[in-house]
Amino acid sequence: MAKLIVADDHPLFRNALINAISSTFATKATVETDSFESTCQALEQHPDADLLLLDLHMPGNCGFLGLIQLRKNYPSLPIVVISASEDLDVIRRVMAFGASAYVPKSANPIDISTALNAVLDGELWVPKNIQKQVLNQHDTEQDLDLAAKVAQLTQQQYKVLYYLTEGWLNKQIAYDLHISEATVKAHITAIFRKLGCTNRTQVVIQAQRLTLEPPVDRAMAQQHSS
């Protein structure tokens, strides 16, 4: 029997997931969280957790950054990413950045149970139909080293980095983040230092290798406008 932390900001899906798990998988306790911050608090309060089920798109979880940070802070805790995305590149990155499994939100209870049992047995798991495309893809050590550097960024710096990859000007970034252009420049200087770059072009080329996801608030805004 396993103790799970289920991190997802949608109560209906979180409850449905827990119900699906309980019907096919033996659990001794389930802790629910609805943000990246509350997930970090739960991990501190429950060091005996056996598994973390993590939604990539919770508030405070900037794309892959949250996963990278959790992997760094809790290296022995298996992380199962639960996501609506079935994009192969996203799945490859998730697995390269240390997840033990990638479970689409469309998965049935049997598949979820199979994934959790595989992870507890020390295996990696992705849906069978994409195993060859995902698990046979090996990111270079250079990419993983870059991911570790990105993990050192603050959430605000991550947002600035993302906007740089989108080609935004400093004044556009400042307006969107409600900060001064001087603060944007300070963030860019810190990003240069942490990523070992000397100009914007180098930063953008480096960041594009990681296929950065938009910050949560930007992604939500894009969904509402579409």
TrEMBL record:
<dbReference type="InterPro" id="IPR058245">
    <property type="entry name" value="NreC/VraR/RcsB-like_REC"/>
</dbReference>
<feature type="domain" description="Response regulatory">
    <location>
        <begin position="3"/>
        <end position="120"/>
    </location>
</feature>
<keyword id="KW-0597">Phosphoprotein</keyword>
<dbReference type="InterPro" id="IPR016032">
    <property type="entry name" value="Sig_transdc_resp-reg_C-effctor"/>
</dbReference>
<dbReference type="Pfam" id="PF00196">
    <property type="entry name" value="GerE"/>
</dbReference>
<dbReference type="Pfam" id="PF00072">
    <property type="entry name" value="Response_reg"/>
</dbReference>
<feature type="domain" description="HTH luxR-type">
    <location>
        <begin position="146"/>
        <end position="211"/>
    </location>
</feature>
<dbReference type="GO" id="GO:0003677">
    <property type="term" value="F:DNA binding"/>
</dbReference>
<dbReference type="InterPro" id="IPR000792">
    <property type="entry name" value="Tscrpt_reg_LuxR_C"/>
</dbReference>
<feature type="modified residue" description="4-aspartylphosphate">
    <location>
        <position position="55"/>
    </location>
</feature>
<dbReference type="InterPro" id="IPR011006">
    <property type="entry name" value="CheY-like_superfamily"/>
</dbReference>
<protein>
    <submittedName>
        <fullName>DNA-binding response regulator</fullName>
    </submittedName>
</protein>
<dbReference type="InterPro" id="IPR001789">
    <property type="entry name" value="Sig_transdc_resp-reg_receiver"/>
</dbReference>
<dbReference type="InterPro" id="IPR051015">
    <property type="entry name" value="EvgA-like"/>
</dbReference>
<keyword id="KW-0238">DNA-binding</keyword>
